[in-house]
Amino acid sequence: MNRRYRKTVIAGNWKMNKTLSETKTFVDELKPLLGKPKWCEVVLCVPYVNIPAAVRMLKDCRVAVGAENCHYESHGAYTGEVSAEMLKEAGVKYVIIGHSERRQYYNETDFAVNKKVHAALEAGLYPIVCVGESLEQRELGVTMDLIAYQVKAALSGVPADKMRHVVIAYEPLWAIGTGKTATAEQAGEVCEAIRTVIRKLYGARVARSVTIQYGGSMNAKNAAELLAQPDVDGGLIGGASLKAPDFVEIVNAANQE
Fold first, then answer.
1. Rounded distance, CA 114 to CA 97, Å?
2. What are phi and psi of 14, to 5 degrees?
3. To pair with 249 at 20 to 30 A between CA atoms, which of 78, 158, 167, 238?
4. Which residues are tagged catalytic?
5. How does pLDDT run along the chain (257 residues), one tens digit per residue?
6. CA 36 vs CA 40, 45, 67, 207, 252: distances in Å
């Protein structure tokens, strides 16, 4: 982490978990444990149906509400989809875009990811843009080339003055939901490479201001080591964000002076 130039963001991604009643139980447990984090921003990205309740229940504490996806159009005949404008009006601040599960299960392309990034920024949301490689791609030695392509594709057409609203999340596919985690050195190396790509696109001042998260089985035990890497500015947390005590431990690791 480098708080001199950029903010630290710990974001929970609940995926398709927790009903409304379970969300209330979680928030009731979270609040007394969390306190008021001083050094990092805390985000909970929840299922669409939980957003209004989460916004209402978290309004008196320092936790922003995020969504797990959005459509790239502002309105239209897209049954079952939700626009960035709808999310913004509901009280959402962040939105996850291009998560590997969206890419894998719903064939989300880099082109679609880029359109969603633009839609989110136009609506005033902060996109958390996910990039990452499979185990096969890592073993082939193409990780850095692939990540560079994904970053460039996602940010195509995004002006420099909008980059302060963009978060990049490096999530190696082989470390999502598997219990495997990239070593701190592996995570730091790729996050540094992401910042290098941004530097080439936008210059050094913009690059050092962009928050880059690690997402891939970050948990209470390994968070501090991962966050000690200079280019790892937070985490996109999956399973560990579903239990309030575990999530708070990760926040505390990021909140050290």
1. 9
2. -75, -15
3. 167
4. 99, 171
5. 777 889 999 999 999 999 999 999 999 999 999 988 878 999 999 999 999 999 999 998 889 999 999 999 999 999 999 999 999 999 999 999 999 999 999 999 999 999 999 999 999 999 999 999 988 998 899 999 999 999 999 999 999 999 999 999 999 988 776 777 789 999 999 999 999 999 999 999 999 999 999 998 899 999 999 999 999 999 999 999 999 999 999 999 998 76
6. 10, 19, 22, 28, 10
Contact 57, 27 (CB under 8 A): yes
Sign of CA dihedral 230, 234, 240, 244: positive
Burial class (CB in 10 A: 0-12, 13-18, 19+), 112: middle
> Residues 15, 101: contact at Cβ < 8 Å?
yes
Rounded to the nearest 5 percent, the helix, strand and coil shares of the chain are 50, 15, 35
Q: How far apart are CA 248 and CA 37, in angstroms?
A: 10
Total number of residues shown for the chain: 257
